[in-house]
Structure formats: structure tokens, C-alpha cells
Amino acid sequence: MLAFLKHFIAYSRETDHGHDSYNISKHDLFETYLAQYKIAFSQGDASAAGVMCSYPAENGHPSCANHYLLNDILRGLWGRTDAVAVTDCGAVSNLREYPVSAPDDATAAAMALNNGTDIELGSTLFVTSLRQAVERNLTSAAIVKAVARRALLSHFRAGRFDPLDNNFSYSRLGGESMNTTLHEAVSLDAALQSLVLLKNDGGMLPLKLGVKLAVPEPMASALEGLLPNYAGNDRDANTCMTAGVPTYDCMTTIADALAFVNTGGETSRAPGVAVNDANSSGIAAALDLARAADFIVLALGIDRTIEYEGVDRVDTALPGLQESFAQQVLALGKPTVLSSSWLSTTCCMDQRPLWRPSAQP
What we know:
By secondary structure, this protein is an alpha/beta fold. The protein has 2 domains: about 5-160, TIM Barrel (Alpha-Beta Barrel); about 175-340, Rossmann fold. It has 11 helices and 12 strands. It has helices at about 25-35, 35-40, 65-75, 105-115, 125-135, 140-160, 180-195, 235-240, 255-260, 285-290, 320-330, and strands at about 5-10, 20, 50-55, 55-60, 60, 85, 210-215, 240, 245, 265-270, 295-300, 335-340. The chain has a 4-stranded parallel β-sheet, sandwiched between helices. Strands 1-3-6 form a 3-stranded parallel β-sheet. β4 (about 55-60) and β5 form a beta hairpin. α4 (about 105-115) crosses α5. Keywords: Glycosidase, Hydrolase, Signal.
């Protein structure tokens, strides 16, 4: 397995990624933006294998055509001559526009190649225009060979070219090798290790079993909303797919999981509020349910209607009525658990941070 780090570097804004240019001092560059990458590339055999360069430009030079970042620092100063640089989707074609405005595809392809990029994703300028770039002396065959060597070397290291009779050869891996019991155990362990307990006032956690537990929406019954981008389908197509369409009913909801472990108790759910609308009709029933419970588990968050690959949020606020609903639940004075990821105080059944400083669990 090879680890590639993204996005290298200065991936700060949520809009117009491909055409920003940030003015970054050398002090800020090394102290803020590069320090963590340097650590990851200085771990011997456990070091990262490469980077995915980001969309923006630093001081006028796009990350995926930035000789100083990719060649002088990564492969020069840090000594990682074998480090592979792969673009984010469409980053090479973005070079046709601001801030460098390459006049044609061949120039854009040569610009990326000459300045350190090895593999292009999301556009095809390397495939369609590199030959022309060499013929026009915009780049050279020697640079193309060096890039090909670096890119292919990573495939060799990952085992892609192992002999067919090798027990660990990629050619021996089929569908049965996906989502195995071992994989599930590793995924569960990784998920458990990723949890961070920010507060546990009064030793509320772990929750007592056999209690009256309220689990109001919006995320208590979510299925697809629990998945991040690029989540694959379950191996059992009969339970997770209907006519080729994912149904996600092979998954367990938060409320169902809590009901399963709350042996001898009563676990109830109520609509509460949706992820992102102004419909407050379910709030009264949810508050009644919460008021009658011994404990409340409040799972707020976002789903793919709010953010997904290619569509980013411009702030970290909880959408819809979730903020006000959380305040009303907390005002009941009942022992309440709010799930949290990253630095959230109310939060999120999602891998992305949500921050609402006014909510105090």
C-alpha cells in the first residue's frame, strides 16, 4: 500500500479552487503549510509515496505546475526524488485559465510536466498533447521518460507487476477479496480509534443500559447520510441493492444500533427536524419524546444534499433548523449526548467538521 497526501498545498478556500493565487511568505510556507508534509515524508520506509497537488496557485504558480514545491522542496530539499505528484481532477486543463493562462493544451501539459507533475487526473492533456509538446520543444523526451519512470516505479512498489504465481499478486485478487471479515474488523477498529470524547460531564458515558432513551432526528434514521463520498456498495447485493439501485438497508441506523444495545430498555425516535429545511412540524413531538426519556442521544449533521465531491460548504454552520432544535433539546435539562467529530460541539454524523459555538452540551 502506498500513501499519497492531499492537497499539496494551501487548499484553503471553498469556492473557485482552480483559479486562486495566494501570496504566501517563505516563513508562512514552511511553518504553516509544509511542516506536516515534511514529517510525513521523513519516516523512512513508512514515509508517504507522493502527493496530490492542490488546485490553487502559490505566488502565481499553480501547485500542479510549481517547480519550487514539487522539485526544489519535495524532491530536492527533502530528498524524495522518487515522490510521485498526481493532480486533482482537471488541474492540468485549469492551466489554460487564470492565473497562468496557457495558450494551448500542449503548453499546459508541458508546463505541468516540466514543473513536477507525474500523473494527470480528470483531464487528458497528457494523452492528447504531450507528443506535440515534445515536437514543439516545449518539453523533452528526457523529462517524459523521467516522469514515466517515477510513476511506474510506484506501481512496481505496490505490487502491480508481481509475477502471476506470486501469492500476493494483484492478479489473484477478485471480488471475494473485497469487504472481507478482516477488512470489516480493520474498518471498525479505525472508526473506533477516530472517535474523540470532548466532554463527559458527570460521567454520563458510557450510557447505562435498560433505560428510556430518546433518539430524535435528523440523523437517527439516516442510512445514506452516514456514508462519505466514494463509499462502495455492500458485498451482499441482495440486501443493499434493488434493481441495481443502492437502498442502503444492509446498514444499521444510529437509532437501531442504540436500541440493540439498550437491553431491557426502551429506545424511541421522533422526526424532530430534517437535515436542511424550515419545517418545524416535528419539533413538538420530538421534544415530548425527549422530555419523557431518561437520556437523549442527539445526532445532528449533514448529508450529500449539503456537501459532496465537487460541492463544498462555504461555512461550518449546521443547516436548517438543527441549531435551534438542539438548543430546545438541551434546554430540557435532560442528560444529553451530542455526537461530535473534529472540533464540533454539536455535531455531526459525517466526516466533516461542523462548528456551532453557541451550543453547549
